[in-house]
Amino acid sequence: MTRKQRRLTLIGSAGAVLAVALGLILFALSDQIVFFQSPTDITQNELPAGQRIRLGGLVEEGSVVRSDDAKVSFRVTDMENVIPVTYKGILPDLFREGQGIVTEGVVNANGVFVADTVLAKHDENYMPKEVTEALKDKGHWQGDEAAQ
Amino acid sequence: MVIEFGHFALVLAFILTLVQSVVPIWGALTGDTRLMATASPVAQAQFILVLVSFIVLTGAYLNSDFSVVNVWENSHSAKPLLYKFTGVWGNHEGSMLLWVLILVFFSALVGLFGGNLPADLRATTLSVQSWVTAGFVLFILATSNPFNRIPNPPIEGNDLNPILQDIGLAIHPPLLYVGYVGFSIVFSFAVAALILGRTDAAWARWVRPWTLLAWCFLTLGIAMGSYWAYYELGWGGWWFWDPVENASFMPWLAGTALLHSAIVMEKREALKVWTVLLAISTFSLSLLGAFLVRSGVLTSVHAFATDPARGVFILVLLCIFIGGSLALYAWRAPMLKQGGLFAPISREGGLVLNNLFLTAATAAVLVGTLYPLVLDALTGEKISVGEPFFNLTFGPLMVPLLMAVPFGPVLSWKRGDLLAATQRLYVALGLALLVVLFTFWLWGMERVLAPLGIGLAVWVMAGAVSEIVTRVKFFEIGLKRGFSRLAGLPGSAWGTAVAHFGVGVTVLGIVTATAFEYERIETMRAGDTVTVSDYQVTFDGAAPRRGPNYTEDVGHFTIRKGGVTVAELDPSKRFYTARQMPTTEAGIYTTGFSQVYLSLGESRGDGAMDVRVYFKPLITLIWIGCVIMAIGAVLSMADRRLRVGAPKPAAKRRRTSAVPAE
Fold this sequence. Notes:
The structure holds 2 protein chains of 2 kinds. Chain A is an alpha+beta fold. Helix content of chain A is 30%, strand content 30%. Chain A has 2 domains: 1-33; 35-147, CATH 2.40.50.140. Classes of the chains: A alpha+beta, B alpha+beta.
């Protein structure tokens, strides 16, 4: 192999790996990312069936109903619209009524959000940023004390 | 008064870093040996001063001195002694002080043990390290001073975030920081090399032990963090592709690439420009991690209190160091002489392949971590990039890399023979295929990826073993000579084999724990039993209990296998009174390498509780593999060649002809 061929092989294989990596990244970014939506977004926009989304908002006061088999249902609100959510599993330690949360899952045919993940991160002051901003957009943000 | 003394020591240290930033490098550039000689003592003085201020802060925590804002915000007089101690770095200010302590610790180490370095390289390296240190000490003094006082001290403190009240806080941050910050010295070496316009095989040999040291600690730190999250958060997951985890994982990936490219540079004088770039990138990724974690752009348990001024300050530091070093690189790198040629199929070729895949994987993780932040900043659109993204990008990049791992060490330098290399790996290949067939036979065709993943792990492990065995021709020369030749192998050969074996172990743990996990989530009343895998888990009832600074509901569970009691577990739900914050304490039963994992959910009032029960086969291998990798790094560091330092070029030529090439 000549010097030139060696260099070409090296550059060629580097190019190939990088192209594969770039392709994977672009494909994954177009397909595997999950958009954040507020209850209003979901009510107003028709979602493609089975599309995974992140739903964020406040857990409506008095809406949490627990049934056996560790199932729980509650409603998520942004003070304008309300989406019912069901979840089977253990809720995070900081899940409370009136608390901001983010859940991930799919809206089913009855308009119920079936969540497979509920996040209320491990900090007592935690208010998901997305939720804060969505509430600010709607003019329902009650100052920073509301997050405490 | 003592507190002010600590503050004063830190200010003095800052002044010394300014001196150090200028004097030794001036000496190196003008050839003044007296100026260069100041580097080492000043580095040690910096270390002592920062250590003093760290000890003062620790003292304030141990004495619960609530006149110090930092202690008041993060401590409580009823907190157990261990957590008073570890609480020093369980907050933003204290952890930055730890970060700086480790920066100057590495300076002092280079000062002490850098005797075999050329004087100008040592002086310049220590000056560059001081630029970084000065930036961070200024950051502490200007925006995050842990020594600020409260005029009217409160009687009681706010307590430490309960999640952090765990032995994990004693281990995880110091390990991780030594790793993170350890790469700073490699960065300083690289920048010094660029300034002096000189990188050679000897440079790579000096840099390698520091890279190994930092990498070893970073590996352990990440593994410890993963295990801590696993048992403390109660979600049973060991990796979440959380931006904060990625922040530590990216320097690890880049550091792993650096570790390998430095070998090429040391042995063959090739890949110089690339190695220097990797050294700069690795620490840049550490800095990026610090920015992501500390600036408040992310919400996480690591974010602590967020203050916009801090974010901007770190961003400025980030831009100066990353931008400055890359600009210097663009300017000076073309001056570095390129070294030896090699065929694509060769040890060098294998290591280049390793670097390609590792950097591509780093890039994938970087995109996944930054894309949501960038998109939010540009368009206001909120997205989440989670596990599916990383499985699809990171996963496929790791598979070819892992397949190639056993080939690397058996290929010869310069021009390798793939067929001969494969012949040395026949046994490993056969073993891996047998395991794949066996797992398919055991579990059928419903899971295709898992048996292949297990086969891949076995291939990596067996490849590492057979590399060592065939290298000393263990089975051909008789046991006695075989063992003596094993003992005579250089540390770096053992290090490579052991670390690669550890990679295989971790992969095996990841595959089995992910593919064959059993999970049950049930609402249980006293007397109820659920079955996971071969284990029957019975809930015997719950009772309240009081701890020093919390109350808890403890569930009592009995675990039986085939009717025989094998363990009793007490997972609990704690409530920390000072912060009004609940936490979950998981109950874990380890059997062999597998674990039964229990965590409690909400109590339903009538004695029923939500319970999550997992059986996680071979999960501990994930962390054991990391420990094995770290042992590999230690063995490599123990290599005599690294200890005696780089020989003179002439001496080197004589030695390489006397010792068979590897």
